[in-house]
Write a structure and sequence with these properties.
326 residues, 9-stranded mixed β-sheet, 13 helices, 9 strands, globular
């Protein structure tokens, strides 16, 4: 009896060891009970659901989204006290993902064919995050007749636009990205002059939201406005809009993504990022969020490093404050 019992004990130990290897980083993701957790400040779980349903269909990796303000997400990633803890951090503004990397909230990404397909301008030089999607900042027109004019951002500082221009709050990611873009392209003093002239030309004080701004354009209150393309497309009906002319670099508001410092499922999180950077992932994310892929950027987009623009976010905030763009 002793030999069979020993053989049975050995078999049980072998099975237990095999069970240990099927932990969170195992390849057999379809057997995992817990999903990869994404902390996102926007666009929310409902908007992202079709993206992650497509991911699950392709890879058997399940994802759940916790939506909270960017500052709270960053604090929770750093402290590792929230439940459930984050595996991935997704931000709607490039400054927030840049700050997360700078504060040590992210871990380095592994090289992969998917992430390597993202142009250098849309990747962190330190390899901690990349731009998932781009949202061009466009000029909005009250009518199609007005849209026949191809205007640059700086044109809207002209005298003829007094009382005709509307803006949303300078705290919104698209507007901060635009100010940082102007600082990078024009240098701080000329950029501040342009912003001050925009404020002079306002028909009404800045709107709290992009939705309110676009409603004012549709109502005829504003003849011209500046907004993110995704917000314009979300309006019903969408007003006329145009990118600045080809000789003027287009500012980009960007979604950023990286792996959280204390990720429980870092290997699976890396696989999620590889899929999101792939042509299929880029297509699904752009469709859900009304944004644009970054793997083949149009020539009119600014070629400046998004990391540089993230670094300029504080300068952009101070410039807006001095120019009284609330």
């Amino acid at each position: 009896m002793r030999q069979p019992l020993l053989r049975l004990l050995g078999l049980l130990l072998l099975l237990t060891g095999c069970g240990d290897r099927s932990g969170p980083e195992a390849a057999g993701t379809e057997m995992r009970a817990e999903p990869v957790v994404v902390y996102a400040d926007a666009p929310g779980a409902a908007t992202l659901r079709p993206v992650f349903e497509a991911l699950a269909a392709d890879t058997a990796i399940r994802v759940t989204v916790r939506e909270a303000p960017a500052a709270r997400n960053l604090d929770d990633v750093m402290s590792n006290t929230a439940v459930p803890p984050a595996d991935l951090l997704l931000t709607k503004g490039i400054a927030d993902i840049w700050r997360a990397g700078d504060d040590g909230a992210l871990r380095p990404l592994k090289n992969s064919a998917g992430i390597d397909s993202v142009p250098d301008a849309f990747r962190d030089p330190d390899g901690q995050w990349f731009v998932l999607a781009a949202d061009p900042v466009v000029i909005v027109y009250r009518s199609a007749a007005d849209a026949a004019r191809a205007l640059a951002y700086t044109d809207l500082a002209g005298d003829e636009f007094q009382g005709r221009l509307c803006l949303s709050s300078s705290t919104l990611p698209g507007n901060r990205a635009l100010i940082a873009h102007l600082i990078a392209e024009l240098e701080p003093r000329p950029a501040e002059r342009i912003v001050r002239l925009w404020i002079r030309n306002l028909a009404l004080p800045p709107y709290d939201s992009a939705a309110g701004l676009l409603e004012a354009v549709q109502a005829g209150t504003c003849r011209y406005a500046i907004a993110r393309r995704s917000d314009v497309l979300a309006a019903t009906p969408p007003p006329a809009y145009r990118l600045p002319p080809n000789e003027t670099a287009t500012a980009i508001s960007a979604y950023g993504v990286g792996i959280a410092r204390h990720a429980r499922y870092a290997e699976l999180a890396q696989r999620v990022l590889d899929w999101l950077a792939s042509s299929r992932g880029q297509e699904q994310f752009a469709l859900a969020t009304r944004t644009m892929s970054v793997t083949a950027p149009p020539p009119e987009w600014s070629s400046r490093s998004q990391s540089e623009l993230g670094w300029l976010d504080e300068s952009a905030r101070l410039l807006a404050e001095r120019a009284r763009w609330r």
